[in-house]
Design brief:
globular, Alkaline Phosphatase, subunit A, 14 helices, 21 strands, about 30% helix, Gyrase A, domain 2, alpha/beta, 2 domains
Length: about 425
């Protein structure tokens, strides 16, 4: 029997919006699979980190991509880079010698059927699935096959992260599932509802419309999965999201605040760099700044806009390392029970983004450790997952890759994630 794994990710859909009236396809899927009730995002809860974590089965401490925006040490100074641009991973390889520091699903499965990824988020998030060119990646910024050989696909190149583009990408994905030569792993990563949530209030009619459209696209893909199963294939299906969103209640210029606290000289010299990531902030520093880290941490801890903070060796508690100069991960403060004008709970401070980027005040944002940005959803359907059940054990994005490899009968190696099949063998609770 042919074994195959298919994953569909609805970027940014928080768990509490999976409701019968809004997402009938997803709620219907619950009857055929297992719902993971304590599923979490990566840290920070941003898409380029989530894509890298999904692809490698490891958190940033191992795959070494710390944010949507990161700093790389170049010529003795830190330079800030947007991971979302098409050429980021080539630049990272030139500076550090590697794109990601652990193998991806595309590399591990290259001789066992390979991976194809259809993505409608940023180019960097799409290419994070396969930055070294072992499989196939389809994205409007450029489609690539093995060896990073460009593929001509005019249909894909004209797709945008809007309702029409989402549908067209889903249809292109479904067509490849029907081809005679199919990959062992197929990933469809849609931009909605994340794209809309950044520009409209959570719970607003426009937001609900985006969620409903995403649910309809899932229905189209599930029909194709069922056809494969009807043909006798053993298909493991994951449908989920990478992170959630919270409403931005206020925007903080963290760099200005830190400069005003006496660290302006370090910022000007480039020995300290502050990198906003939505509702989280990454702080990088050279060795010259290390004697002042304790003072910086002391200042941050007493700020009303600061939430959970992890510095230096404590970074391991949020899946990070200080090997590449990261000294502090800061999740900005959030209030879980405060609601917006549409009654949607969860408000956070957000960091002022780099010049030219939107601040999203009053709209959705993510990156930190707030309850709802750390509440993605996950449903698994396949022979190892009992229909209509719930697993309450803690799971996260790093568990998906090893679950796929376990299904395909391939070794997991040193991934920090674990196969979810082993978790549900302990008789998960029946869903109420």
């Amino acid at each position: 029997m042919i074994k195959r794994a298919i994953a569909i990710i609805l970027d940014g859909l928080r768990r509490d919006f999976v409701q019968p009236a809004i997402t009938p396809t997803l709620t219907g899927l619950l009857d055929t699979g297992t719902w993971f009730d304590a599923h979490r995002s990566a840290i920070p809860s941003v898409t380029r980190v989530c894509a890298s974590t999904f692809a490698t089965g490891n958190m940033p401490a191992r795959h070494r991509l710390e944010g949507n925006t990161v700093a790389l040490l170049e010529n003795g100074r830190f330079a800030v880079h947007d991971v979302g641009v098409p050429g980021f991973f080539e630049h990272k390889r030139a500076v550090t010698g590697k794109t990601l520091s652990t193998p991806t699903l595309a590399e591990i499965t290259r001789d066992a059927g390979g991976v194809q990824v259809f993505s409608n988020v940023s180019p960097g998030a799409a290419y994070a699935h396969d930055p070294d060119g072992f499989g196939h990646v389809y994205h409007r910024a450029g489609c690539f096959g093995p060896g990073r050989v460009p593929l001509r696909d005019e249909n894909i190149s004209s797709i945008l992260p809007d309702a029409d583009g989402e549908r067209r990408l889903t249809e292109a994905f479904v067509r490849t599932l029907s081809r005679p030569c199919r990959s062992a792993v197929a990933v469809l990563w849609l931009s909605e509802p994340d794209f809309s949530q950044h520009y409209v209030p959570l719970g607003s009619p426009a937001h609900i419309k985006a969620v409903q459209a995403a649910d309809a696209n899932v229905a189209l893909a599930i029909e194709a999965v069922q056809r494969l199963r009807d043909e006798g294939e053993d298909v493991l299906l994951f449908v989920g999201s990478d992170h959630g969103h919270q409403t931005v209640g206020a925007v903080i210029d963290v760099e200005r605040e830190v400069a005003g606290a006496g660290f302006g000289d370090a910022l000007e010299a480039g020995t300290l760099v502050i990198v906003p990531n939505g509702t989280a902030v990454l702080f990088y520093a050279t060795e010259n700044f290390h004697p002042r880290v304790a003072d910086l941490v002391g200042f941050l801890r007493i700020q009303p806009w600061a939430g959970e903070l992890y510095a230096e060796r404590d970074l391991r508690h949020v899946g990070h390392t200080n090997i590449d100069g990261l000294i502090v991960f800061l999740s900005l403060a959030s209030v879980d029970d405060e609601v917006n004008e549409f009654g949607v709970p969860g408000k956070s401070f957000a960091a002022k983004p780099p010049a030219g980027k939107a601040e999203h005040l009053g709209f959705g944002q993510h990156g930190g450790l707030g309850k709802y940005e750390q509440s993605p959803f996950l449903i698994a359907s396949g022979s190892a997952f009992r229909p209509g059940t719930m697993c309450r054990e803690n799971t996260d994005l790093a568990d998906i890759a090893p679950s796929i490899l376990h299904h395909l009968g391939l070794p997991i190696g040193t991934m920090t994630g674990r196969p979810l099949q082993h978790l549900v063998e302990n008789d998960p609770s029946e869903r109420k």
